[in-house]
Design brief:
Blueprint (H helix, E strand, L loop, with lengths): L3 E6 L17 E2 L2 E2 H11 L5 E6 L4 H9 L8 E5 L4 H11 L5 E6 L7 H14 L1 E7 L5 E3 L5 E4 L6 E3 L3 E4 H13 L7 H6 L6 E4 L10 H10 L1
Parallel strand pairs: 1-4, 1-6, 4-5, 7-12
Antiparallel strand pairs: 2-3, 6-11, 7-10, 7-11, 8-9
Helix pairs in contact: 3-5
GO molecular function, one term: 2-C-methyl-D-erythritol 4-phosphate cytidylyltransferase activity
Catalytic activity: 2-C-methyl-D-erythritol 4-phosphate + CTP + H(+) = 4-CDP-2-C-methyl-D-erythritol + diphosphate
Function: Catalyzes the formation of 4-diphosphocytidyl-2-C-methyl-D-erythritol from CTP and 2-C-methyl-D-erythritol 4-phosphate (MEP).
Length: about 220
């Protein structure tokens, strides 16, 4: 079907954690968050290679405490991160060779599973771009600058987008070249291809596929695992 690469972004400093160590290196049952994430993609037969984007000052730490400690079967290529997330994605994309589909995933989402990975790959070959999402449990309101409610959004039309966000390589590279040339800031990669009028297929995600961001998330992670 073509070559599939995983692009794992592990640049989060975890300021909301109030920890001296980056959140992807915090441990759940004595193993780093990033280990669990890498292990899921390493175990998936549909993924050929893994590209891991890290801040330059954390590369040696990763090599010593994860790469040197745990065994992985697939090649893990380490890429130096950029100033912002989108710069890190671009660095990862241009480091790849001979890729058909790329799965862009948060390093701090350790509970991704093989089913979500495979569905993302299959949907991407069909539609060109895909991402998992879950229905919102809460009512969402738009508020004004004074804190008063202006309107209530239709919850049935809203989803919270997760990762991996999956793309045909040529499409996502075209998108990142476009935002670089036009100095556009984005918050995720589905926005990148939407700017070029590509449609993104949203498939069912998992409420367990959480991103470790706050101390409370680590407690939830202990329960999930």
């Amino acid at each position: 079907m073509g070559k599939v690469n995983a692009l794992i972004l592990a640049g989060g400093k975890g300021k909301r954690m109030n920890k001296s160590i980056s959140k992807q290196f915090l441990t759940i049952q004595e193993k780093p968050v990033l280990y669990y994430t890498l292990d899921k993609f390493d175990s998936c037969s549909r993924v050929d290679e893994i590209y891991l984007v890290l801040p330059e000052d954390e590369i040696e730490y990763f090599k010593e405490y994860i790469l040197g400690k745990y065994r992985f079967n697939k090649p893990i290529h380490i890429v130096k991160g950029g100033k912002e997330r989108q710069h890190s994605v671009y660095n990862g994309l241009i480091a790849m060779d001979n890729c058909d589909v790329v799965l862009i995933h948060d390093g701090a989402r350790p509970f991704i599973n093989e089913e979500l990975i495979n569905e993302g790959i299959e949907s991407t070959f069909l539609y060109g771009a895909a991402a998992p999402g879950v229905k919102l449990k809460d009512t969402i309101k738009i508020v004004d600058n004074n804190g008063f409610s202006k309107t209530t959004l239709n919850r049935d039309e809203l989803v919270a987008i997760q990762t991996p966000q999956c793309f045909k390589y040529s499409i996502i590279l075209e998108g990142h070249n476009y935002i670089r040339e036009n100095k556009i800031t984005v918050t995720d990669d589905t926005m990148v291809v939407e700017l070029l009028d590509y449609n993104v297929y949203i498939y069912d995600g998992s409420y367990n596929n959480i991103k470790i961001t706050t101390p409370e998330d680590l407690k939830i992670a202990e329960t999930i695992i």
